[in-house]
TrEMBL record:
Keywords for this protein: Membrane, Transmembrane, Transmembrane helix
Highest taxon listed in the record's lineage: Eukaryota
Name the UniProt record assigns to this protein: Rubredoxin-like domain-containing protein
Domain Rubredoxin-like stretches: 160-200
PROSITE patterns: PDZ, RUBREDOXIN_LIKE
PDZ domain boundaries: 60-117
Gene3D superfamilies per record: 2.20.28.10, 2.30.42.10
GO MF assignments: iron ion binding
Keyword Aminoacyl-tRNA synthetase on entry: no
Signal peptide limits: none
Segments passing through the bilayer: 215-236
Amino acid sequence: MSATAVVAAGSATTFTGTTIKNSKTVLTPTSLQGLSLPEAKRSLSHSFFVDNNKKATRRRLDITARTAGASKQIEVEVDKPLGLTLGQKPGGGVLITGIEGGGNAARAGLKVGDQVLYTSSFFGDELWPADKLGFTKTAIQAKPDSVYFVVSRGAEVDARATHICLDCGYIYTLQKPFEEQPDTYSCPQCQAPKKRFAKYDVNTGKAIGGNLPPIGVIIGLVAGVGAVGALLVYGLQ
C-alpha cells in the first residue's frame, strides 16, 4: 500500500500500512501573534524608531572595545587640549594622523591611524558623524572642555602616516609610498613642494630629521634681514 500524506489545518496525518502517526506543528508564542499585518508592521516600526532614537540621543556609553572581525570600535572622552592631529582619509573619512606623546589623547588610548567615526556635537549631547575634516574640526573647536570620540581601529584603518609637511603639519597617509611620488608632488593642504616633507614618527607625532623651519619663517627672516640692511644703508647715507 502506497503512503499517502494528508495536510489539513496545520495537522499532518500519514497512513503507512496499519500505522497511524499524528503530528501537529507547535507555534512558539511571540509578541506579534494575534496582531494583523498592518498592526505588526506598526509595532515593528515603532520599536525600530524608539531604539534608533535612544541610540541617537545617548551620549555616554561604557568605554569598551567592541570586536568586529579584525577591527574594533572604541569610545573615549578626551579633555582639552586634545593633543592630536586630524587628517582627511583618502576616499572619505577622518583619521588621527598625529598624537602628542603624553598628551590627553595618548592617555585616553587613542593612536595614530584610528579612524574617527563620531565626535561630540556643539548642540547638546548628540554625536555627529565625522566624514568631513573641516566640519569635524569646527565641531571639536566649538566644544569648550572635552570631546567624545568614537573611533575604529584595526583592519578598516589603512592609514600609513610616513611623512609630514614641515610648513603646515599635513600628514601623508596615502597607500602609495611617498618616495614614489613625482618631484612635482605638492602638499594638498598648503601647496608646499615635496622637499618640504620630512619622515614622520608616529609615536612622537613629530618629524624625523626635519630641522628646516617652515617656509613662512624663512621668508620672514629674509624680509627682516633685507629691511635691516635697507635701514643701515639709508642710515649711512
